[in-house]
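User: Could you go from structure to sequence for me? I need the amino acid at each position, not a summary. Structure tokens:
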């Protein structure tokens, strides 16, 4: 009888833990949806401060819900172990972007009005992109959300759901994507079809990126690896746009 009671007690404990984990996942998703809507559909100030504030709140909320620094991939040892992963991720992304810029057909996709000057691109690459985009998003998605997901779902399912959410997170920021990119507008057009196709393409691309970032976060055991890959992708993209402007002027 004592064995049956022990098994029942353990089952009830696991069920309660599963419910708490699921509640945390749903809470994180709700906060992210609210932050996305506020950042993109309210005021210019909100577009700057809401996502970093949301990431900080999620970090604090995750700690209150039982997530520790190890769960988040942010212990000092994890960060040290992640340094080679971070360096490798930056190097791979930089090489791929450099090759794309060197090939004329791919170069058109970096012809954008967003970073017309080197100063703007450098400021974006080393200030706004890491502080306002990469760090908040990685803390929220590969930090708190992925840690919560993996307490409820198997690895592949947890990373896939997180990546799909990361892809849909970019819907609002993809409005007007084709209109500001000559390569995309030349292929897709700048009308309604081109707009929709650009958004769909952005969601697919960022979902794939979310899978890669999630795998890096898990495989390296640290958030530093996904932060580095995410930063490299965005920052080298900004610098590549400025380089293409200079090459074509």
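Assistant: Here is the amino acid at each position, in order:
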């Amino acid at each position: 009888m004592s064995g049956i009671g022990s098994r029942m007690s353990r089952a009830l404990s696991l069920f309660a833990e599963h419910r708490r984990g699921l509640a945390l996942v749903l809470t994180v998703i709700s906060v992210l949806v609210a932050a996305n809507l506020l950042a993109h559909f309210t005021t210019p100030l909100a577009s700057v401060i809401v996502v970093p504030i949301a990431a900080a709140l999620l970090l604090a909320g995750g700690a209150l819900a039982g997530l520790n620094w190890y769960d988040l991939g942010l212990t000092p040892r994890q960060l040290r172990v992640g340094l080679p992963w971070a360096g490798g991720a930056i190097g791979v992304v930089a090489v791929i972007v450099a090759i794309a810029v060197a090939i004329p057909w791919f170069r058109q996709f970096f012809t954008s009005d967003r970073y017309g000057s080197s100063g703007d691109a450098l400021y974006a690459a080393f200030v706004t992109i890491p502080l306002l985009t990469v760090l908040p998003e990685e803390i929220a998605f590969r930090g708190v959300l992925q840690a919560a997901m993996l307490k409820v779902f198997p690895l592949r399912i947890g990373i896939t759901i997180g990546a799909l959410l990361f892809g849909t997170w970019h819907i609002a920021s993809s409005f007007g994507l084709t209109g500001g990119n000559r390569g995309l507008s030349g292929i897709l057009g700048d009308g309604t079809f081109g707009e929709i196709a650009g958004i769909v393409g952005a969601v697919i691309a960022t979902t794939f990126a979310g899978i890669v970032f999630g795998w890096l976060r898990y495989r390296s055991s640290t958030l530093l690896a996904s932060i580095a890959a995410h930063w490299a992708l965005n920052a080298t993209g900004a610098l590549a746009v400025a380089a293409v402007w200079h090459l074509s002027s």
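One structural detail worth keeping in mind: The two ends are 83 Å apart (CA to CA).
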